[in-house]
User: Which sequence fits this backbone?
DNA sequence: AGCTCTTATGAATCATTGA
DNA sequence: GTCAATGATTCATAAGAGC
């Protein structure tokens, strides 16, 4: 255990995920959003869990997550198979099967589709432009607030060939916390429910830490699966993006990371984040 | 065995998939593109394989597919988990694991993302807007012609991450066989390689037969993984969409289906299809 | 030709009804 | 009860009509 930094509505703990989780009370967390390290043969990368041992490594952690999650809570897992020797690794498939066996309900699989994937050229594949977003729950009935993530109707969005004119200066890039902003400007338009594909650009200007998801990603699930004042947990906090989304939308945040540097970044970003107020916060 | 209708470059056989495949010579097929029936509890739907028995049902068929495929060939499997009792079924996960164990190389997973998914509203999920497109091969080296499916730079890569991109789903027209169409109009532009996400609208024109994927979907893989004159197999021909793509691009087609009505439709659509000529055929 | 408006419909899911 | 069939819900396309 390294140290604990705890402020009002924020609790970042540095240490081994499994050990720290044991300190968390039963059924105290409303939502878990996380992106665990990928399986990798190289030991010196973040995490560095070997593919064959990945499921065995993750399952005890998942058992703790199942314990600390409230009955109506959700667990959103962002993950993607990497390629070894020209093949996709299968540990993700096995993980989902074992999580279900452990007691998690595999409610849905959302997708994160990236319009601007990392460039590159290979002879046997194209650029990888998507990742899994598995949605697990403890019970068949869980809190879900669909109206908070509605999007402008297709007709309206499409006819705005001049969209750039209207929202010229407001880049809806991931950094700008796309969802919920400019809500007032849309109030008189027709809204529809979204589908299970999140189309979000990768953030390019990160601070040097390994590629994290854009803020809009945890933001979407936080609005969808939790209320203001609820507690959101990220057991692999990384650069603390989940925490940023929490502060923006008035959720309590608990982050865990084994690296002191990541904890420092997570805390710094949380402190730098300004909560959304009034119309700008849709939920 | 029902009957065999064979013309030049077209061979549609009605009968049980597993039995018919046994008549096909070893390593005679260049590419397999198919969308098998989904697992379902209801007996009277197409196929009607129960989820628990799905993998056991499919594996012997896959073994035949492995046998008839040429060493440098590809197998593209379109499938999607359906929901039962509020959870996604897991037979697809098990199937991929078993196929790999059988000897298939899981090279890549492409996605079919639909801008126009089936409508509906439910309390625990949104509309399902995507399906799997697993890419299996026999060996690490297989034929792949990336330059044939390049896309214009402006349409894709440029506007990435903007507001309009996020809410306006950019789509290649399915009915017009989007890929390769308007090729002349693109000649003077810059091209870039695509990513592993296919954005294709569901066709709603083909009524009567159980609507399959849009023509542009097999078209993309046929151009990518086969040459003109090659033999393409669809062991679950359904409405014969794969055959249409074959005739358009000068590939030989073998289709198998257990229902006489589907075979008739497959043959009729093949006959109605006009091969692309000159500039319009990119490959 | 374009442009607007209307209409039909699709590998879905869930709750309800009927056997 | 368990299982199977029916109806309500919902929206991005394409096609067709009208101007």
Assistant:
């Amino acid at each position: 255990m390294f140290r604990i930094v705890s402020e009002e509505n924020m609790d970042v703990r540095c240490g081994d995920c499994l050990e720290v989780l044991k300190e968390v009370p039963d059924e105290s967390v409303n939502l878990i959003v996380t992106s665990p390290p990928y399986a990798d043969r190289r030991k010196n990368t973040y995490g560095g869990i070997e593919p064959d041992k990945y499921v065995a490594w993750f399952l005890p952690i998942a058992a703790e997550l199942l314990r600390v999650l409230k009955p109506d809570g959700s667990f959103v897992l962002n993950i993607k198979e990497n390629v070894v020797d020209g093949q996709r690794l299968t540990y993700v498939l096995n993980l989902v099967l074992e999580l279900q066996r452990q007691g998690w309900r595999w409610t849905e699989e959302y997708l994160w589709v990236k319009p601007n994937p990392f460039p590159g050229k290979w002879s046997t594949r194209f650029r990888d432009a998507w990742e899994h977003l598995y949605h697990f729950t403890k019970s068949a009935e869980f809190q879900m607030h669909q109206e908070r993530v509605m999007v402008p109707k297709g007709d309206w969005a499409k006819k705005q060939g001049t969209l750039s004119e209207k929202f010229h200066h407001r880049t809806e890039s991931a950094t700008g916390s796309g969802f919920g902003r400019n809500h007032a400007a849309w109030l008189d338009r027709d809204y529809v429910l979204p589908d299970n594909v999140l189309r979000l650009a990768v953030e390019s200007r990160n601070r040097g830490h390994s590629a994290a998801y854009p803020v809009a990603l945890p933001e979407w699930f936080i609005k969808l699966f939790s209320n203001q004042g609820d507690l959101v947990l990220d057991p692999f906090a990384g650069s603390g993006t989940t925490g940023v989304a929490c502060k923006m939308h008035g959720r309590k945040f608990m982050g865990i990371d084994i690296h002191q540097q990541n904890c420092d970044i997570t805390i710094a970003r949380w402190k730098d984040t300004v909560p959304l107020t009034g119309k700008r916060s849709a939920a």
The longest strand of chain A covers residues 69-79.
